[in-house]
Amino acid sequence: MTEAVTGRHMPGAPCWVSLMVHGLATTQEFYGTLFGWEFRPGPQQLGPYVRALLDGKEIAGVGQLPPDRHLPIAWTPYLATDDAGVTAESVRSHGGTVGVGPIEAGDAGRMAICSDPTGAVFGIWQAATHPGTALAGTHGTPVWNELVTRETSVVGKFYAAVFGHEVETDVSAGPDLLTLHLEGRPVASVRGVGAALPRDRGPHWVTYFEVGDADESARLLTELGGHVLRPPRDDARGRAALVSDPEGAVFTIVTTAG
Q1: Domains annotated on the chain, with CATH
Q2: Which residue intervals define the domain VOC in the entry (predicted)?
């Protein structure tokens, strides 16, 4: 079901996802074919940058890293805030780090790139003219974000303190799984995987993108040069596969149950 997202996102809710890559043109070609995205230029404060669209509505951002920057290629979720400066100070005071910003992104809003006490990177976004992702529930849209970390207790308290999330333990879906709520509505999850945490990545956020058919999208992704890290299987969210794009950015494709 296609759902238009209007107005501002609730503070603390995921509101945007972005990806910084080395090959902007080839990345657009990959996601354009996989998800049906079209692209138009976005704010250039961080260098070459485009916004991905579906049906004319903004979905995600993709930027190009400077040639000399060898950072991990990863999808980064942004959490909404009414005041990026106040939230950045709260991140610091609760043991996190602010790596970039807050900075102005043209007239679109203010942003900062942060990491939680375990090192997982996320963004904060104070909307002005750009409220964030404007479409949900259809092929190619972000539908969920999950933090994969070693254990959940400390990091769950961090997000609750900084963003006001209500933390709920979900024993039915795993031995160490928390769901983050705002006003009783689930907005993200935190999964503790212990020693199974990838050594080369550390704690990290994973974005779920809706697809019409997870098995078919996994096949197409492989043809386009991506990699299937965990083949499609049925889980609590639907039929999902953990995958990566040609530059190594990890994400999940999911055909939502029901």
Answers
A1: 3-135 (3.10.180.10), 136-256 (3.10.180.10)
A2: 13-127, 141-256
